[in-house]
Design a protein that fits this description.
Oligomer: heterodimer
Helix content of chain A: under 10%
Structural class of chain A: mainly beta
Shape of chain A: globular
Largest sheet of chain A: 7 strands, mixed
Distance between the termini of chain A: 37 Å
Distance between the termini of chain B: 40 Å
Structural class of chain B: mainly beta
Helix content of chain B: under 10%
Number of helices of chain B: 0
Order of helices and strands of chain A: EEEEEEEEEEE
Shape of chain B: globular
Order of helices and strands of chain B: EEEEEEEEEEE
Strand content of chain A: over 45%
Number of strands of chain B: 11
Amino acid sequence: KAGVTQTPRYLIKTRGQQVTLSCSPISGHRSVSWYQQTPGQGLQFLFEYFSETQRNKGNFPGRFSGRQFSNSRSEMNVSTLELGDSALYLCASSFRGVTRDTQYFGPGTRLTVL
Amino acid sequence: QKEVEQNSGPLSVPEGAIASLNCTYSDRGSQSFFWYRQYSGKSPELIMSIYSNGDKEDGRFTAQLNKASQYVSLLIRDSQPSDSATYLCAVIPGGADGLTFGKGTHLIIQP
């Protein structure tokens, strides 16, 4: 079974721009969660989508948003990029959701904001 | 603020010895606990999950949970150089708001 895939793997943007990241979950998984990982803050939960609905949300500003499509693929958008948004963005999928099932992580998208 | 605390290390252990990794959490309502391993430049992978007090063994790995003390640990027996990685403790706090991760312990197994 194919794992979680994320595209692109690397991105370089400038301050003020916006960016969209994509995640394809493991086949059959309906939950997709997004995390931000930085050296200073570690791994932090952004939000979870399940069956096209945002089910949980972490403590991030409204510049961070997401959506999920009917095929369970998910996108995350960050608007008005700031230097502090430079991070590894990880997507994880599970069958029933982050509080119910094991999550499997994708390889991540490395975002650099200049 | 629901927190998960880990010693950042590095924790250096000789090959063949037992590596002991510790984690404490602040939310008494937490019910689910996980240990992930992350190699440098890679994404986290699940090693163990534990939901009830006591020990859970899987091969060379043993997770221990003490909810009264709000403490989770991971023991790695017969440590191998390939176990060198960052180990992340993760907790699902009371209420469905995702996983809360500790900042990880960097483990080094010395040949």
